[in-house]
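hey can u check if this looks right to u? its 142 residues, i copy pasted from the old doc so theres a chance i mangled smth
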Amino acid sequence: MPNQKIEIYTDGSCIGNPGPGGWGAIVIIDGKQHKVAGGEGDTTNNRMEMMAMIQALEFLHGKFPKEEIPKLKIELFSDSNLLIQSLNLGWKRKANLDLWSELDRVRAWLNITWTWVKAHANNKLNNAVDEMALAEATKMKK
């Protein structure tokens, strides 16, 4: 368990911006994929990107004892350059401050590497979370 490696893939989607949106995440623990997804009726793409990250990290908090969480080595992959650069380089946060606060709360004490991946490219897991997010946004549209 010490220094266990966890991979997380996240994505958000919005039909219109703002509009109905969805988010999806795949959390890989010991080679097993755990999928979490959800949506909102009236939101933005950036909010859904952030919700995917928040909910994936919340999922981890529910899977591991509190004292074990800081020992995990987490690599989170997202195609949101804005979020990855904000987290890696400390870019100024100008919008969605409520979700930034929530993201800060769930990532506190975690050992996370924030990695950007190209959207709609040949990354199978990034494409899978993109499909999950779009499916959730489509449900919210109905």
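The chain has a mean pLDDT of 94.
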